[in-house]
Design brief:
Largest sheet: 7 strands, parallel
Low-confidence stretches: none
Structural class: alpha/beta
CATH topology: Rossmann fold
Number of helices: 10
Strand content: 5-15%
Bound molecules: nicotinamide-adenine-dinucleotide
Number of strands: 7
Radius of gyration: 19 Å
Distance between the termini: 16 Å
Oligomer: single chain
Order of helices and strands: HEHEHEHEHEHEHHHEH
Shape: globular
């Protein structure tokens, strides 16, 4: 990434942090997959908005680093290693929120995996690959919600934010387990919103397009592929910070009308599709510039 783009992102993130300051004061949040990408950005964003955050991830070292970063910035965070595919570990994650911070109001389920080489066309996928993807992406979301709902109800209500994907609405094909897992997350979100409503809990999901995070390292490792994905979004690839802003919004009372919603927050990825060569010709984006810079 070019230096100017990094500086621009930092300035924008700083502006949003100032705008959101105090929005979630007194709230307690749990974030899974908080060691990297969307979860990391959201944990930092939620803390900057005033929430105490329990930072959970499979990678214990990364959660310690993220919690330390939040604390260094004046926020409140606790690190907890968790495998979201283990229901008991999800119960322990929620217990950390209650024991260390006294309540639970927000759950952001971001932990997820994509296995681009093992996952593919259904007829070729090994059952173990299917089970692994479903275990983390779909069952993991369910286990965390299941553990969090009673604690949130006890805390007076709250907001659950799940992470679906554009693949839940517009699969690219050849990533069948991933697409199925995210379709499941979208439908689980809508269905759970009914039962949660009576407990004062809103449940929504975000469906990003393609965000520049390590999960896409294989895709974006090739310059031409990266450029193709960039053109497939109306305003370029997404940043983890812009999804974090949505998470803060959904966690806040400003989103009180929203429950059972699966928000396609994908810079137009699912709004249109055209072959890359047509887009390249029509859009005439100057070489080396990103539409994301102006979005
Ligand atoms: N990046 C994108 O383009 C994109 C698009 C749509 C949806 N998503 C979804 O967003 C979520 C976050 O993706 P990301 O881009 O931040 O990826 P990422 O790889 O940067 O982060 C995912 C995090 O989840 C953690 N994790 C993996 N398995 C876990 C487990 N069993 N228990 C706990 N933590 C586990 C990883 O250690 C990692 O820190 C995922 O659910 C992904 O499917 C991402």
């Amino acid at each position: 990434m070019v230096r100017e783009e990094v500086c621009r992102r930092r300035r924008r993130a700083e502006r949003h942090r100032l705008l959101n300051a105090g929005l979630l004061a007194g709230r307690v949040a749990v974030v899974t997959g908080a060691g990297s990408g969307l979860g990391r950005a959201a944990a930092i964003g939620l803390a900057a908005a005033g929430a105490a955050v329990v930072v959970g991830d499979l990678d214990a070292e990364r959660v310690e680093q993220v919690a330390a970063k939040i604390s260094a910035a004046g926020g409140v965070a606790s690190a907890q290693q968790v495998d979201v595919g283990d229901p008991e570990a999800c119960e322990r994650l929620v217990a950390v929120a209650l024991e260390r911070h006294g309540a639970l109001h927000v759950l952001f389920n971001s932990a997820g995996i994509a296995l681009p080489f093992a996952d593919g066309f259904a007829a070729d996928i090994e059952p173990e690959t299917w089970d692994t993807v479903i275990r983390v992406n779909l069952s993991g979301t369910f286990y965390c919600c299941r553990a969090a709902i009673p604690a949130m109800a006890e805390s007076g209500g709250g907001s659950i934010i799940n992470t679906a994907s554009s693949m839940a609405h517009l699969p690219t094909g050849l990533l069948d387990a991933y697409a199925a897992s995210k379709g499941g997350v979208a439908q689980l979100t809508k269905s759970m919103a009914v039962g949660c409503g009576a407990q004062g809990i809103r449940v929504n999901a975000i469906s990003p397009g393609y965000v520049d995070t390590p999960i896409n390292a294989t895709l974006f490792g090739h310059e031409r592929a990266r450029a193709g994905y960039e053109l497939g979004h109306a305003t370029g690839l997404q940043t983890p910070e812009e999804i974090a802003d949505l998470v803060v919004f959904l966690a806040s009372d400003a989103a009180r009308s929203l429950t059972g919603a699966v928000l396609t927050a994908d810079r137009g990825w699912t709004a249109f599709k055209a072959p890359e060569f047509i887009l390249r010709k029509r859009l005439q984006r100057p070489e080396g510039t990103s539409a994301a810079e102006n979005a």
